[in-house]
């Protein structure tokens, strides 16, 4: 039996690496001939990648391995674009490791069949071409985001459109991967704010058209319009293979959060959690607290604060929640709520007591909410999250919006935008009071479809097999 190997290259940082590992596990389960090597990058001063790989190495499938790319001596972040320079400057190391893997092909009767690149590692397409290998992209977000990025590239490079004209605009854009016009105010700020970062992103995503296919972290039934729009148009082939989820987080036996949830009625608790970069301080945290108290709902709130300027940390834990919450809030709500720091999000969403999820609408959180059938209260903060929130509320209709165009001010140069307690409370009430004919019924339907997609004969199962077969056929035909 001929064996073949794929080489995955995720961008630095934990979130893209964990998604890559979970995607690799799915593909390995589809074909016993396949092996995968993941090349890891770790930024100076960040030990999270090495910690993660060491932690999971013992439980990895035998055909999945890690190879660490060396650090870059003398590299230090000088600007916002530095991380992309760090990635691009790994090209010599990627070339060397790939050369070594190919050189040892004959020794274990397997061949390198292609490389799968993170969306921010597309410069390594050039290395793949040097070795006459196909290059695929692993897109860690959804099909709508992929389609939007491709559309913005077209507007910029083919139609000479200045994307900064959409900043703070009330215009609504026809975008091929959406069935409804997209408000300019939900476009990712990185593209419309202008400056060097916009150029970096646009030039990265321009190279998507050079790939031999894009593996997307979605499933067909969740984004059918977007997938169909890209299947029928020009551009690389799209493989919707998801949902790709890391569900390893668990409660400890003596976890107070689990004890609290165990004591609550089914679907009675609203869970608030805002991802690895989500934090609130001052006035906004107090408005959320007032909304929770006003709603009368049971709640579990993962509340963290922004790191100090110059500390290098975007998010840190509170020493005492009383420094930011309304006076007496914790005492008044102690029987119906808990305020905590970091949360085991997947474990919480899986608990039957949880009936609503106030979320920043990051894509991993979005897929987790669908997987566990928990309707979302959309509170996007940054990046593509407003776009995701627009899709969830207006097209998929599995969420209620607090405010779609809210964008968190990470720079702190001006007065922060505050979303009032009334808006937050209203959205919470709509989700927690929803019947099976509303968002609750929609997300339950999508929960069943998500699980069916991964089963034998399901849409994602088929897409995984098709991707593997296309890799094999590419090498036969080359």
TrEMBL record:
Keywords: Glycosyltransferase, Transferase. The keyword Transferase applies. InterPro entries: UDP-glycosyltransf_plant, UDP_glucos_trans, UDP_glycos_trans_CS. SUPFAM superfamilies: UDP-Glycosyltransferase/glycogen phosphorylase. CDD domains: GT1_Gtf-like (cd03784). Its EC number is 2.4.1.-. GO terms for molecular function: UDP-glucosyltransferase activity. Pfam families: UDPGT (PF00201). It comes from the Eukaryota. Belongs to the UDP-glycosyltransferase family. This is Glycosyltransferase. It comes from Salvia plebeia. The gene is UGT2.
